[in-house]
Design a protein that fits this description.
Keywords: DNA-binding, Sigma factor, Transcription, Transcription regulation. Pfam families: Sigma70_r2, Sigma70_r4_2. InterPro entries: RNA_pol_sigma-70-like (IPR039425), RNA_pol_sigma-70_dom (IPR014284), RNA_pol_sigma70_r2 (IPR007627), RNA_pol_sigma70_r4_t2 (IPR013249), RNA_pol_sigma_r2 (IPR013325), RNA_pol_sigma_r3/r4-like (IPR013324), WH-like_DNA-bd_sf (IPR036388). Belongs to the sigma-70 factor family. ECF subfamily. With 166 residues, the protein is mostly helical. The chain has 2 domains: 1-80, RNA polymerase sigma factor, region 2, helix turn helix motif (Rna Polymerase Sigma Factor, Chain: A, Orthogonal Bundle), CATH 1.10.1740.10; 90-166, Arc Repressor Mutant, subunit A (Orthogonal Bundle). The protein has 8 helices and no strands. The relative contact order is 0.12.
Length: 166
């Protein structure tokens, strides 16, 4: 049973997906604090966990915590540009590709970005994503379709414009 795991076990299992989820949503200076708050929240809520898979449950907590972060600070949520999180990286084609993808994702509505990240990057099922976002399975499928369509359009527009953002 998941609730019999130690804090270290939970941290080991969930830190990476929670960190990735938060990293593109929160400004760099706050990432570590927000992730620590989420991990503590997950640990405190663990006795209430009643499900087969801990990761989607934890990411739902992260999703709501990020929303609370923006409500508390009265800021408008937006994707943090990937270049803010890549400082110190060696310049290479891979970094350029990530920056280009970051530009495309930043042009999508936040829920479209979330559905792409959860379904395609994290590999969660549509049912798990539905639980995290508080929508139906069918709405996840529809949103993913619209998100992919929007991604392709923005990507094409950036490619047509030369892909450079000055």
């Amino acid at each position: 049973m998941e609730s019999q795991l130690s804090f270290d076990d939970i941290y080991e299992q969930l830190f990476s997906p929670v960190y990735r989820f938060v990293k593109v949503r929160i400004p760099g200076r706050d990432i570590e604090d927000v992730v620590a708050e989420i991990m503590a929240k997950i640990w405190r809520a663990l006795p209430t966990f009643r499900g087969p898979n801990l990761k989607p449950w934890a990411l739902r907590i992260a999703y709501h915590h990020v929303a609370d972060y923006y409500r508390r600070s009265q800021r408008i949520p937006a994707l943090v540009p990937l270049e803010d999180n890549l400082r110190g990286s060696d310049p290479c084609e891979e970094t350029a590709a990530l920056l280009h993808i970051g530009q495309v994702l930043a042009g999508l509505p936040p829920k479209h970005t979330a559905v792409i990240q959860l379904r395609l990057v994290e590999g969660l099922s549509a049912d798990d994503v539905a639980g995290i976002l508080g929508i139906t399975h069918e709405a996840v499928d529809s949103m993913l379709y619209r998100a992919k369509k929007g991604f392709r359009k923005i990507y094409h527009d950036l490619e047509t414009a030369g892909g450079e953002q000055k």
